[in-house]
Design brief:
By secondary structure, the chain is mostly helical. The protein has a domain of about 210 residues. It is built from 31 helices and seven strands.
């Protein structure tokens, strides 16, 4: 199987030029640089940094040797690698750089320039002293380069759809660590105005002689420094946290971890002489996490007030706990009126910062006639479906009957129904054939006149935007094609099968890719679905899983010729068991699953399965013969990571999600707002996909997938597929 994306010349990232050896070299240089920084050998630290930067740039400009092919490549290959001059090689290096990391390369160049400038500065003007040790011009250039480097993971995650929806702590760990490093860098740059450490030399009012302590000018100057340190440090903490909470749905404890780690690193610069300040960061983080969990602020709609509460409460908590810890643990006090004013001023500064980071919702234009096209365009660009479908619904409105919410949880998942109870319950009730007026009356308090129609029109608009959005940036490694039967509608034209495509990305996130009505028995319907995915920019997956509908394999072979094909084991066994008794069905499924679990390769699995099928040939010779001919496609998933095999051989996500709706067998009534049945089905599936648990993607599984995608593997003989 070859997955070098020959049909997608715009995406050459499958051939990354960096190897494990490069990572080892960079890690060694980073270790030596750290030792040099600790021991004070600045020249060694600078030399290691420059060597690491030069190594990375040179390796990016070089093309790795192409893997051997078993068949000739197409004559025209846009992403065949750099050729010609050094400029062409550097251009190729920029093309293969992931999204968000190009500014990181620029930051590397800026940092190297800052290193050279710092060396020249020290050679000509000697070493700085005082605050100039931090804010010297050459050091500011170093901070700029380091900031561009450290923000690369955050920019990449910001632009990636894999970080949409609620994140577990493990999924959010790259974002949390990146945010911690950026905050720590900002605190390091402002260490002379940081509340976590005393800048040396510094003076405390309590240590002044009695005569000087009585001088109000001196005392007020020192008090001004304390207040300024609290305000500046609070802004450095709250600013990045506001942006992160606006973009990501971080788990509880993320902001606490960022504040605590960044504060501890900053306080460690002075050997934790102000250890009580770390307690203030911890308290502020807990308040921030609690506020986000309870209010769930949204950048669009009517929940921007949550950001105001977030910034204001966090700032108050930091300033208040900081002053208390300063007085109790370090015996440094401010007058009561000055302390109260400092806490209030810090809260107001945080509140003002939130208005800058998240503009008020009322300030956005809302003229319906002139701005409607622009609003649709923005919806496509920013993936608006991550926001709630009903903005005007009261937050405390719930389904009157808990059974309706439980039914919605069976379709959209427990998390989707819990986070969006109104949307999930209303849409599932409509798809079950419940009239619109009964759906509106099933909530407490009931939905108002027109709210249900507004919901359906909003769903239709979002579905149209989703159906046309580009898939160029969605790195799908596993593609699943399914078909299910829709409930009959008043305007049914005879084709009530719904063909769906969903996938799993390189990061294990489930994404819904396409939906189309048509007959599952017609190859033209599957061809139209696949052609739509290709036209929207989806690149070739590593494996395509289908339920064996007529014509689907031919369509897969034409659209994605180098992708491996896996027949759904669940659907194949369901068809083969129709001619067997109940005891024989259980026996066949159990032995079939055991063979797939214990086999180490496709060839070994085929041999074991042939032995299993031989015991059932007399009971259902025709069906068992059909199953035996499908063994190669039924075992193709064994060439992929072991963590994914159960999902690959029995993935029927769409069928299981819509099974409760299909079991109702009630005709769908006329939809409010002239909504389409497919749009409503998309909405409930999208709710489930956004909150679904990700497929495990450990490092060794990702490396195995990369190896499989770089190497051609035959798709017609699964038993000959080499194991990675």
């Amino acid at each position: 199987m070859s997955t070098e994306h020959e049909s997608a010349p715009k995406r050459p990232r499958a051939e990354q030029p960096l190897l494990a050896f490069d990572g080892v070299m960079l890690a060694l240089l980073a270790g030596v640089m750290t030792i040099g920084a600790i021991t004070g050998h600045r020249e060694a630290m600078y030399a290691c940094f420059a060597t690491a930067g030069g190594w990375l740039l040179i390796r990016l400009a070089l093309r790795p040797p192409a893997p051997p092919r078993r068949r000739p490549a197409p004559p025209a290959r846009v992403d065949a690698g750099p050729r010609g001059s050094v400029v062409a090689r550097m251009r190729w290096a920029l093309e293969v750089t992931p999204v968000g990391y190009r500014l990181g390369l620029a930051g590397l160049a800026v940092a190297i320039f800052g290193l050279m400038s710092d060396i020249a500065w020290h050679t000509i003007l000697s070493t700085e002293s005082g605050i100039a040790r931090v804010i010297a011009p050459s050091h500011l250039v170093l901070f700029l380069g380091a900031g561009l480097l450290l923000t690369s993971p955050l920019r990449s995650a910001w632009a990636s759809r894999d970080y949409d929806g609620p994140l577990s702590f493990r999924q959010a760990l790259p974002v949390v660590l990146g945010l911690t490093l950026v905050t720590a860098l900002a605190l390091f740059a402002f260490q002379w105005m940081s509340a976590f450490s005393d800048w040396k030399p510094s003076v405390s009012p309590a240590s002044l002689p009695p005569k000087v302590r009585a001088d109000q000018a001196v005392v007020q100057s020192l008090q001004t420094v304390v207040i300024a340190r609290i305000i500046v440090t609070n802004l450095i903490l709250v600013g990045p946290a506001l942006l992160a909470v606006r973009r990501f749905r971080l788990p509880f404890g993320s902001v606490t971890l960022v504040f605590t780690l960044a504060g501890t690193l900053s306080a460690a610069l002075r050997n934790l002489t102000l250890a009580g300040s770390v307690l203030a960061a911890l308290a502020a983080g807990l308040v921030a996490d609690t506020t986000v969990k309870r209010l769930q602020p949204s950048a669009s709609g009517e929940r921007t007030a949550g950001y105001r509460v977030f910034a204001f409460a966090t700032s108050l908590a930091f300033a208040g706990v900081y002053l208390v810890a300063l007085a109790v643990l370090h015996h440094r006090t401010l007058p009561l009126d000055l302390a109260a004013g400092t806490v209030g001023l810090t809260g107001l500064m945080g509140l003002g910062l939130s208005a800058v980071a998240v503009p008020p919702a009322a300030a956005r234009p809302a003229e319906p006639a002139e701005v409607a096209p622009a609003a649709d365009a923005v919806t496509v660009a920013v993936a608006e479906p991550s926001e709630p479908l009903v903005r005007s619904a009261p937050a405390r409105r719930r389904p009157a009957d808990p059974a309706d919410l439980r039914f919605a949880a069976r379709v959209t998942g427990t998390t989707g129904a819990r986070e969006h109870p109104i949307e999930a319950t209303a849409l599932c009730s409509l798809l079950r054939g419940t009239p619109g007026d009964e759906v509106a009356a099933s909530f407490a308090p009931p939905l108002g006149t027109g709210e249900l129609a507004t919901l359906c029109r909003d769903v239709t608009r979002r579905h149209r935007a989703w159906a046309t959005q580009s898939l160029d940036q969605v790195d799908v490694v596993y593609l699943f094609l399914e078909a299910m039967t829709l409930p009959p509608s008043p305007d049914a034209s005879g084709e009530q099968d719904l063909l769906g495509a969903w996938g799993v990305t390189r990061h294990g996130k489930r994404v819904l890719l396409g939906l189309r009505t048509g007959s599952r028995d017609r190859a033209t319907a599957w061809g139209a679905l696949g052609a739509d995915l290709v036209e929207r920019g989806m690149h070739q997956p590593a494996l395509v899983v289908a339920d064996g509908a007529p014509g689907v394999w031919r369509v897969i072979g034409e659209l994605w010729p180098d992708a491996a094909m896996q027949h759904s084991v669940r659907s194949a066994l369901a068809e083969a068991c129709q001619g067997l008794g109940e005891a024989e069905r259980r026996d066949l499924r159990a032995r079939f699953g055991t063979a797939l679990e214990t086999a180490r390769s496709g060839g070994e699995a085929c041999q074991q399965l042939e032995t299993v099928l031989a015991d059932f040939r007399e009971a259902a010779p025709a069906r068992i013969a059909v199953l035996a001919r499908r063994l190669e496609r039924l075992t193709a998933h064994l060439a992929f990571p072991a963590e994914h095999r159960r999902t690959l051989r029995s993935a029927t996500v769409m069928q299981r999600a819509l099974a409760p709706i299909a079991a109702a067998k009630r005709p769908v009534d006329e939809m409010p707002g002239d909504a389409d049945t497919v749009a409503l089905v998309w909405a409930v599936l999208d709710l489930g996909a956004r909150t679904a648990r990700r497929l495990p993607m450990p490092l060794h599984a990702a490396a195995q997938l990369d190896q499989l995608r770089r190497r051609h593997m035959p798709t017609t003989e699964a038993s000959a597929a080499p194991e990675a």
